[in-house]
Specification:
Blueprint lengths: L8 E6 L7 H5 L9 E2 L2 E2 H11 L5 E5 L3 H8 L3 E4 L4 H12 L3 E5 L7 H10 L6 E7 H7 L8 E3 L2 E11 L5 H12 L4 H8 L1 H8 L5 H12 L3 E5 L12 H19 L4
Parallel strand pairs: 1-4, 1-6, 4-5, 7-10
Antiparallel strand pairs: 2-3, 6-9, 7-9, 8-9
Helix pairs in contact: 4-7
């Protein structure tokens, strides 16, 4: 196995929403990470992809219960989730340190090459990088995809739930994330924290995504970089039934192409 640049650890977010996850419950399980996809849970698929990418230290942020039990069975570290994503990541960052790759347990199609792409394409001067996929790339990979896009001067972009906290200074972004979560019902405070001029230019599509990330990073004291996904499927996660059906079809087609069998 080829060694990864910087030898990062990885964190898989698998916390439980307040009140639980209605989608998971509709499928008869307590958590999305436990959803079965072609005989394998979503959490196991994510952990396997990270290992195949060459990451040796993997932790799962979750609550006490079946997800934690599964994480231990997969030979990963269990870090108990905080009250929100930012608290979970902040606590894990204190434990695991930098560099740290961050993803989610519902990234059902996660591929080792996407993990390597994010890490290898992150500039050596960056403190943090984010993988995002441009709309045309997503729709070329999955024409039926219904994602949320953010418009910039260089296109419409969708997040891929893949982040790389390369240096210790990336903790600044976690601190701001926590403040944004706290201010989610007071958008004017969020705008003030992130910089009204930059947000205004982003809304008017006067900035490219790379420029917007760089400016926001500068605002909070880090060097932030974009890594554009080469595969639009990197932007596909499993949040609802239609996502699960689409992913099942993708896997069916892959297996049919390689073995001539259906799932």
């Amino acid at each position: 196995m080829i060694a990864l640049k910087d030898s990062p650890a990885a964190l898989v977010l698998a916390g439980t929403r307040p009140g639980g996850d209605p989608f998971a419950r509709s499928l008869g399980v307590e958590h999305k990470g436990l959803i079965d996809l072609a005989g394998t849970t979503l959490l196991e698929r994510v952990v396997s992809a990270l290992r195949d990418a060459g990451i040796e230290r993997i932790a799962v942020s979750c609550d006490v219960g079946p997800v934690a039990d599964l994480a231990r069975a997969l030979d990963t570290e269990v870090l108990y989730a905080g009250s929100g994503p930012s608290e979970s990541v902040g606590s894990a960052f204190d434990t695991l340190g930098a560099p740290l790759l961050l993803t989610t347990c519902d990234h059902a199609l996660l591929r080792p090459e996407w993990v390597r792409e994010l890490i290898e394409k992150t500039p050596d001067v960056a403190d943090l990088s984010v993988m995002m996929a441009e709309r045309s790339v997503v729709e070329r990979a999955l024409p039926s995809a219904r994602r949320t896009y953010i418009r910039f001067s260089d296109g419409e972009w969708s997040g891929c739930n893949l982040f790389y906290l390369r240096t210790a200074d990336a903790s600044n972004a976690i601190d701001v994330w926590a403040k944004v979560e706290a201010d989610r019902k007071r958008p004017w405070l969020i705008a003030a924290r992130l910089g009204v001029p930059t947000l205004f230019q982003m809304l008017l599509r006067r900035l490219s995504l790379s420029e917007g990330l760089a400016r926001l990073g500068s605002r909070i004291g880090i060097r932030a970089s974009l890594v554009a996904a080469s595969d639009g499927l990197a932007a596909v996660d499993v949040d609802k039934l239609e996502d699960l059906v689409a992913v099942q079809e993708i896997l069916r087609q892959r297996k049919s192409a390689t073995t001539g069998e259906s799932i």
